[in-house]
UniProtKB/TrEMBL annotation:
This is glutamate--tRNA ligase. The chain holds residues 102 to 626 of 626 of the full protein. Residues 328-419 form the Glutamyl/glutaminyl-tRNA synthetase class Ib anti-codon binding domain. Belongs to the class-I aminoacyl-tRNA synthetase family. Glutamate--tRNA ligase type 2 subfamily. GO terms for cellular component: cytosol; methionyl glutamyl tRNA synthetase complex. It catalyses: tRNA(Glu) + L-glutamate + ATP = L-glutamyl-tRNA(Glu) + AMP + diphosphate. The keyword Repressor does not apply. Residues 431-505 form the tRNA synthetases class I (E and Q) anti-codon binding domain. Residues 21-325 form the Glutamyl/glutaminyl-tRNA synthetase class Ib catalytic domain. One of its GO terms (biological process) is glutamyl-tRNA aminoacylation. One of its GO terms (molecular function) is ATP binding. It is found in: Cytoplasm.
Length: 525
């Protein structure tokens, strides 16, 4: 029900909805879904399911075997399910290859398309300059014969493409005889070797939209120039009309949202995979600790704006923090790098545990954990190195203590503290986390923190984006955690006091450490 409120306040509406609304989300199975795709999927879902009680189609736009894979298709289905989007029907552009072939023959026979063996560079140049191809006036018979060569994937066929005869010099370059069919000999993940040529998106999309009964086609604004071309195909082939509705792409700073570029990051081993916590994929942001609820909320707040803005990650993570803060159990960790051993001279003679709330503000409802107390504690070097002789400090959730001895310096290895529980915790300047070395055994954790993948805020089209890859986008420390973390499961979200929020990537067990991923909170670093 999320978008309906936002939708109403944005005054979103479609025209001509009396006879029902059919929208479609048309991903190409050439990568995992990123958060930009999610915006497109959620808008289509909103119109179809919430505002007009219509139909949402999921259509795989699968006409380029060079880029597409079953793995991607499967992941898209799973991810949509995960975010709660339920398409009423799933289809494939490749289901329509025979029909599209017939439509292309019709285009050729009616003089609306021709075969062109002009090489790519020349074709681009001619289109830029508005020069007609030398093949533009070939006869229908010649064109049909070449189209059959293309269908067979022959040598002649491979040299050719079919172009729509729209215009040579229309000021809108998208109208300058776009390519509608090209050869590809790679096996297709669904149709195998049946086809050696495939329609382009420009040609297939309007036809399949019309055939599948789509009433409203939502597209990002970078396609606006191609709307007249889409219309031209519907008119020329006398197909049912489809309304176009444009919305803005979503962009983020220090981020690429293009499957082609994301594929490169994966293939080059710059990230661990499509679900790497640094990736802007649905899987990546989840693994980084974004909840589905916060993700949906954030995207719907963007609404249907047509202004392309490059967003900061601050609000994205701040909306997540609001969601996780009230429910994240509190735990404690101490860095194993230069850990300081503290002896409490007047501490409890016997190590023991006490039950404490896991989430103090939630009381009983948040459950309890066991906190160990003894004469022997460990503390973070970073904290202790600021201590002064005879200073009164606070051991968090215990009470005050006076620093009696700092045994060696740089780094400090040992200190002596004298408990001073009557002291006022409000009056101390330093409040530190600590762990008792007994009675329960402390549990080691790999604690990861991640940064942006790119060093430049706004990557421009002309930038060689590979030059701006952040080589230090991850860091790891080994920390000891309180014994309660032994019960954590994958995907649990916790707070390590004074250190931040973390998602459990791998639970502790079988001699392996707990693996925690730091969750950004929206504060700028
Ligand atoms: P990519 O460059 O990531 O492959 P695409 O547009 O080529 O993007 P498709 O699989 O064709 O990828 O996209 C499916 C739908 O998602 C399309 O309707 C497309 O317009 C939309 N979409 C893609 N990227 C974004 C984005 N950054 N913001 C909003 N919508 C997007
Ligand atoms: Mg696309
Ligand atoms: Mg793209």
């Amino acid at each position: 029900a999320g978008l309906s409120k936002a939708g109403a306040s944005y005054n979103m509406a479609l025209q001509d909805v009396e006879k029902g609304v059919v929208t479609r989300f048309p991903p190409e199975p050439s990568g995992y879904l990123h958060i930009g795709h999610l915006k497109a999927a959620m808008l289509n879902d909103y119109f179809a399911h919430e505002l007009y009680k219509g139909t949402l189609l999921l259509r795989f736009d699968d006409t380029n075997p060079s880029k597409e894979k079953q793995e991607y298709e499967d992941s898209i289905i799973e991810d949509l399910k995960l975010v709660g989007i339920k398409p009423d029907k799933t289809s494939y552009t490749s289901d329509h290859l025979e029909v599209l072939y017939q439509y292309c023959i019709r285009m050729i026979k009616e003089g609306h398309a021709y075969a062109d063996d002009t090489d790519q560079d020349t074709m681009r140049d001619e289109r830029m300059k508005g020069i007609a191809s030398k093949n533009r006036s070939k006869s229908v018979e010649e064109n049909l014969a070449i189209f059959e060569e293309m269908k067979a994937g022959s040598e002649i066929g491979l040299k050719n493409a079919i172009r729509a005869k729209m215009s040579v010099d229309n000021p809108n370059k998208a109208m300058r005889d776009p390519v509608i069919y090209r050869c590809n000999l790679l096996p297709h993940h669904r149709t195998g070797e049946t086809w050696k040529m495939y329609p382009t998106y420009d040609f297939a999309c309007p036809i399949v939209d019309a055939l599948e009964g789509v009433t409203h086609a939502l597209r990002t604004t970078e396609y606006t120039d191609r709307n007249p071309q889409y219309q031209w195909f519907l008119d020329t082939l006398k197909l049912r009309q489809v309304h176009m509705w444009d919305f803005a792409r979503m962009n983020f700073i220090r981020t690429v949202l293009s499957k082609r570029k994301l594929t490169k990051l994966v293939d080059a081993g710059i990230v661990w995979g499509w679900d790497d916590p640094r990736m802007p994929t649905i899987r990546g942001v989840r693994r980084h600790g974004m909840t589905i609820g916060a993700l949906r909320d954030f995207i719907l707040k963007q609404g249907p704006s047509r202004n392309i803005v490059t967003m900061d990650w601050t609000n994205f993570w701040a909306s997540n923090k609001k969601e996780i803060d009230p429910i994240a159990p509190r735990h404690t960790a101490v860095d194993t790098k230069d850990t300081v051993k503290a002896t409490i001279t007047n501490g409890p003679t016997e190590a023991h545990t006490e039950d404490k709330f896991k989430i103090p503000k939630a009381g009983d409802a948040g459950g309890k954990k066991k906190v160990g107390y003894s004469k022997h504690l460990i503390l973070d070097q970073e904290d202790v190195k600021l201590f002064k002789q005879d200073e009164e400090i606070t051991l968090m959730n215990w009470g005050n203590a006076i620093v009696r001895k700092i045994i060696s310096s740089n780094p400090i290895t040992d200190i002596e503290l004298e408990l001073h529980l009557e002291g006022d915790v409000k009056k101390t300047e330093k409040k530190v986390t600590w762990l008792s070395t007994g009675p329960a055994e402390l549990i080691p954790a790999e604690v990861w923190e991640f940064d942006h993948l790119f060093t430049k805020d706004k990557l421009e089209e002309e930038d060689n984006w590979e030059d701006f890859v952040n080589k230090e986008s991850s860091s790891k420390t080994i920390q000891l955690c309180d014994a309660n973390v032994a019960d954590l499961k994958e995907d649990d979200i916790i707070q390590l006091e004074r250190k931040g929020y973390f998602r459990v990537d791998k639970p502790a067990g079988d001699g392996k450490p707990l693996v925690l991923f730091g969750i950004p909170t929206g504060k700028t670093k």
